[in-house]
Amino acid sequence: MSDAVSALPGARFAGLVDLAEAGPCGMITLRGDLSAAAVAKAVKDTTGLALPKPRQVAIGKAASVAWMAPDECLIVLDYAKAAETVAALETAVADAFATVAEVSDARAVFTIRGAQARDVLAKACPVDFADFPVGTIRRTRAAQGAAAVWRSGEEEFTLVCFRSVAGYMWDLLTTLARPGGEVGLYR
Amino acid sequence: MLLLTCPHCGVAAEETEFANGGEAHLKRFGPGSEDAAFEGYMFNRKNPRGVHFERWRHAYGCGKWFIAARCTVTLEVFATYPAQVSEPPKDVIDTIKARRPQWGGWA
Amino acid sequence: MSHRLEKGGRLIDRGTRLDFSFNGKRMQGYAGDTLASALLAGDQMLVGRSFKYHRPRGVVAAGAEEPNALLGLGKGQRYEPNQRATTTELYAGAKTVSQNHWPSLEHDVGVVNNAFGRFLSAGFYYKMFIHPRPFWKHVYEPFIRRTAGLGRAPEAETVDADRYEQVYAFADVLVIGGGIAGIAAARAAAEAGRRVILCEQNAHWGGRAPVDGAVIDGQPAGDWVAAQIAALRALANVTLLPRTMGAGVHDHGYVLAYQRVADHEPGAEKPRHRLWRVRAGRTITATGAIERPLSFAGNDIPGVMLASAMRDYAVNWGVAPGRRVVVVTNNDDAYRTALALHDAGVTVRAVIDARSEAKGALPEAVRARGIRVATGTAIRRVEGGKRVTAVELCPQESDGAEASERIHCDAVAMSGGWSPVVHLWSHCGGKLTWDEGQAAFRPDPDRPPLGHDGQGFVIAAGSANGEMRAGTVLADAHAAGLTAAGAKKSTAPGAEDTAEEPLAPVWMMPVRATYKLRSKMWLDPQNDVKVSDIQLAAREGYESVEHAKRYTTLGMATDQGKLSNINGLAILADALGRPIPQVGTTTFRPPFTPVSMGAIAGEARGGLFQPLRRTPLHDWHAENGADWEPVGHWRRPYCYRQPGESRHDAVLREVSGTRESLGLLDASTLGKLLVKGPDAGRFMDMLYTNMMSTLKPGKCRYGLMCNENGFLFDDGVVARLSEDAFLCHTTTGGAERVHAWMEDWLQCEWWDWKVHVVNLTEQYAQIGVVGPNARKLLEQLGTDIDLSKDAMPFMDWREGRLAEIPARVFRISFSGELSFEVAVPAGHGRALWDRLIDAGAEFGAVPYGTEALHIMRAEKGFIMIGDETDGTVIPQDLGLDWAISKKKDDFLGKRGMERAAMVAPERWKLVGLETVDGSVLPHAALCPLEGKNANGQRKTQGRVTSTYHSPTLGRGIALGLVHRGPERMGEVIEFLGDGGRMIPATIVETCFYDKAGEKQNV
User: What is the tally of structural domains in chain B?
Assistant: First the structure.
């Protein structure tokens, strides 16, 4: 089997920030009662991470778990590990009311790195990035497209959108990160 | 542009992140119902000048439906609460009554 | 003659000269000039013509209130009309042209209107152009279009060369206005630890105080401003935004601010404008005040200017608009202009003061310089054409029939007092109160605009709040900053104020002016509205200020009445015999001054105009001749054109190739929703009209979804994945809508049902492999799925591997052919497609687009949501009764379908249509009947919903909704074609091809 291809393989841009498409990324949607012990245990056993609190992302070495809604989290991990993790999760939550679905191919993932990352994002998202420490996630819109944005490092954000609008999102981010567009909002 | 707080995820966001779903707390009338009841369910809306309960979905966020109690004249938002109720919770009613003593009440 | 003064000009850099042009004339200014100051320095007093009478117009103001000096600026892709010269920074090479004149600024034929001014009074548009009616189109409109209007629009072919953007910002306290009030308020809030944004519409900070010579905390105002800005800039919780105009205050603390990032450096690698979308806890409007003109005859002649503006030009830019100036006033403040001009070496011929006495410190200082002060006196009339030459005086308490004196001068500085800029306070519902002492409306602090919490969220500060002296301004603004910050008291900056005597409200000069004088007193110089027009409107019954405004066009010019409104109100109130506050103001609406269309659009232009959704196979389509069709935000190939091939021919080739051998379709855009949980079956039975809970795993079923009205809104094939899981296919545009619909019912009605919905639309690339050789091709690719007829009959699905890729294969058909839809993870979609294309070559496989898809489904009589449905069609109208369960007690839409109008036999129902001559019926053609309906429209008995040329049948085929259609098989009815031609067509069954379904069942 050929390797899976991400939406915009190898896309890179350097401007006010460094932008990159992250390549194939394993992603699993888990719907269910996040306060149920079986669900928490399933996530812990498969990722080594505790379920994040609302609006938080648990960031680990091999995986991250993002809180998406009161009954939904998104597990991000190595693309090659997604299928077996789905199977393991399904077994682990078989007795609970929970749904596991692989969505690795449904999304595009971008990283936004640099001191001006928040300024660039502020041009697209109606979000206050002032109180937004590492590990914070916000589902929102970036201009006209739905997106989830989390702070994955001190000067790094990760943005996830639907695969079909990857081109739009890339063009948007590269436009907003063009030199000359310094905003000076977040310092 | 309205500023609403989603009671499910706690995010305060601008109107563009939400989708409006019209009047809240409608009672569904299905097969077997009288024409008048069905008509009321489908078409008759209160459209009040003042206190109003309306459905919103956090469309660009957690995807959950909630209800906002707000004033259609001043746009004051009295409260937002999850949609999984068939009538406004008592604490919401009390909040509104405190702000609008003349209000005739829900229903 | 240069009007640049030897000295002075705190904002200009005399070391940096900038060349520019005006109407082709080469001119020169300095860095720091505005276009207006540079034009005045070059003695270009005449800058345009008025809207109606084409009277000569000169610069009146020095700021955003300027009504006259609107210029076309730039060239080619950067040309823009109506740029306000007083607020536009001069840059090297600026090309400016004046507007609203023909053939030239100096010689304008439209000025003939002036001679007929008495016929062009209030409401003249309404009175004049009504009769005779044919004159409108052929005489009036062409004339008005050529002579009226403001600047020329950019050429149609030009594309704006600049880029624009928007930014979302959040603040505890937003301060609008960077004068001393805004600075003091921002400082107070910032010191309290609040997050503060301070914006100022000009490039420089400090507003008027440095011009007026204020001394703050012992420092000259300019020095104090510089120190404060430096201190604010150093604070991490403060954002300073120069060149940023507070455009509008909106609900719940939402404020739009318009930053002119690069107007002063065209061509720079920067966004030209940036629209700030600020959400602020509290907004402080420190927007200052605007000086009012005085109404005297000839007050529109170039050279008549606001007193404060003349002072600004002298102090800020070292420009004297005149050499011999007369100052006319009803207050003490204008004496500052006399002092500033005198001290700059300009001759002040006299100060004409309408008040009976002027004894304050400022008048005394003027007298001490030997300048004559004439009290109780009015300007009777200004003399001059394109420039002031003299003024005639008369007693203010007179009718002005006789002149008492004549003074030669080349400029007049006028002041009628000051009006707080209450626009932003008022945008979102802040109320005003009438200040008798200052004869001005000011914000009523007890009635502010209310926010989401029901509390006031705007605080007016400084002159915008009616405080007109530096000391009181600073105290007021400091307090506003503290209030907005919720902070405790701290020490405000202080200033020594010169005592000023009260003004006398003067709405007309002289007070009982004759009609002749009144008809030359301009209120709105851009729109040519005079005192006499307002009085006429009042006499004709326009008592509401909003009506009088629209009737006379007062305040409807591009300055939106910033200069004219209060004076106009006062004249109207006087004519109606009512107090001014009872007449009230017109509505203040955003934006405060115009905002560029580019800023409103932001980055959303060209490729970013709206999101384009691309399938995983998009690039292949683009590389292989795809002719795109937008479907929602998706782009789907309409057809693939080979070199030299027409669209029509390509479509016919694709249909024939598919029916005869093999076609490949990118079906990735179809919605794919996972519905899973213990109550999934029960939920599916409510969503779909048919019974879904009885579907066996491994099987597919076509289903219909209706809204509660019973109207069909989506359809698609449902596959049962397992006992507790279904995969619902939706229409291309329907995935998000159907997903939201499902969540709505699950969350808001049946919230105790255990069902999850996950939108998997984009997880999969889905490819239709269609045609007699479909099975052979899939088998050649290698698969562990037994695709044989017996192992996998029609409407089954299987999971396995195809070409070593994990896949789900659905044996479903929208074409009537043997057909499989293959779903693989999107990241493998292109690889599978490439394999199918390669291996398919042997069978002559043709990729086909949406048009071929449509034709093939129409040949089979399959409906398409959006073609056969329009939001008023129930499934029974389409002959889909077989897909409506009679066993279920309830499903969404069931009750709606039971209504009398839905079960009536009179409904239009779906039939096939074959033209008698084999031609193709026009799209959406109607089938008319004799007679007219209640709206006077021709009655109809049907319409075409889908119509195509069928290459398979070699003739036109159509589907249509026809009154009692299925009961009328074989009947010939006539459809309306182009030009009233009637086209006979026979009513036939909806399925035109392979009625027994043998081709798909092999």
Answer: 1
